[in-house]
Amino acid sequence: MKSPWLVAFSVTLISMMELLDVTIVNVAIPSLMGSFGASVDEISWVSTSYIIANVVILPASGWLSAWFGRRNYYLVSSILFVLASLGCAMSTELWQLVAFRIIQGLAGGGLLGISQAIIYDVFPKEKVSTGLALYGVGVMMGPTLGPSVGGYLIDEFSWHWIFLINLPIGAVAILLSWLCVHDSINEKRPQSIDYIGFALLALGVGSLQIMLERGEHWDWLESDLTIACLLLGSFGLLAFFWWEQRVATPIVNMALFRNREFLMGSICAFCVGFGLYSTLFMVPLLLQTLLEQSAYQSGMVIFPGALASAVSTLVIGKLSQENKVDERLFVSIGILIYGYAMYLHTQFTLQSSPDTLYWPLIIRGLGLGMIFVPLTNLAMRQLPAQLISVGSGVLNLMRQLGGSVGIAIAATLLTRFSWARYRQLSEHVTESSIIASGWDVARYDPRVLSLGTSDPAQAQALLVLVNTREQAQMLGFSMLFGLLGAVMLIGVPMVLLMRNPKRIAQPEQEALPCSNNSRESTQA
Question: Where is the Major facilitator superfamily (MFS) profile domain (predicted)?
Answer without folding.
Answer: 7-503
